[in-house]
Design brief:
The protein is an alpha/beta fold. The protein has 7 helices and 12 strands. The protein starts with a strand and ends with a helix. Bound molecules: cytidine-5'-triphosphate and magnesium ion (MG).
């Protein structure tokens, strides 16, 4: 059996949430936000969980791990200045053949989605949940001019967990780090694989419920969905 690691990301600053408490620790129905995704991976078939958080939040996370009995969480590591660098720190601590990288800010990830992502990564080596786009999407130029609309039927929204063969995603990060690549505009791991190795991920059916909690409105949505 191949070993599966999950990296749960919780090292962001949550600036768009505009809250005094970091968004990953905001209590929703008596549980900190981060506990939801940790519990989802605890229940799943992953063999180990690596939690990535801010240096100052490691103690707090270790209390959360104990309180919610996340027995598969083997390590809590400090994150980096941008998401991709947090992921890189998590990957260095992972020992699986495959790794699932998940935004801790997506609390309602389902067992179906985790299982489908594992199945797809074992088959295709790189997998990502996607959902159809509901709005019409356009690019806007720096002077505020709208450019041509994209064909919505050909667009999808990217979710997590994004999954890769551990050795591949490690290689992609090492290569880009060597090239002094600027990770600041990277918002997901599929971008790292494409930039680093030119490898595309296989799409898996994502879920509306697997929404990323980003703004106060998302938090209200969450409270009414659990
Ligand atoms: N993240 C991380 N390390 C960073 C930045 C982000 O681990 N340096 C994590 C967040 O904790 C979150 C996930 O990446 O679980 C997705 O990021 P996002 O929703 O953008 O969260 P924040 O960066 O915290 O929020 P904001 O962009 O509003 O500041
Ligand atoms: Mg962010």
């Amino acid at each position: 059996m191949e070993k599966i690691s999950a990296i749960v990301l919780a090292a962001g600053k949550g600036t768009r949430m505009k809250s005094d408490t970091l968004k990953q620790f905001i209590e929703v129905n008596g549980r900190p936000l981060i506990a939801y995704s940790l519990e989802a991976f605890e229940k799943s078939d992953v063999d180990e969980i690596i939690l990535v958080t801010g240096q100052n939040e490691i103690e707090l996370c270790s209390r959360i791990i104990k309180k919610f009995k996340i027995s598969r969480c083997v390590r809590i590591v400090a994150g980096g200045a941008v998401r991709a660098l947090s992921v890189y720190n998590g990957i260095k601590a992972a020992s699986g053949d495959y790794v699932l990288i998940h935004d801790g800010a997506r609390p309602l990830v389902s067992q179906r989605l985790i299982a489908d992502t594992i199945e797809a990564v074992e088959k295709y080596k790189a997998a990502v949940p996607v959902i159809p786009v509901k709005d019409t999407i356009r690019q806007i130029s720096p002077d505020g001019t709208l450019m041509d609309a994209f064909d919505r039927s050909k667009l999808v929204g990217m979710q997590t967990p994004q999954a890769f063969a551990c050795a591949d995603i490690m290689k992609a990060y090492e290569k880009l780090t060597e090239e002094k690549y600027d990770f600041s505009h990277i918002t997901d791991d599929v971008m790292v694989m494409e930039q680093g190795l030119g490898v595309h991920a296989h799409p898996v059916r994502g879920e509306e419920e697997n929404r990323k909690i980003t703004t106060p409105e998302d938090l209200e949505w969450l409270a009414s969905h659990i």
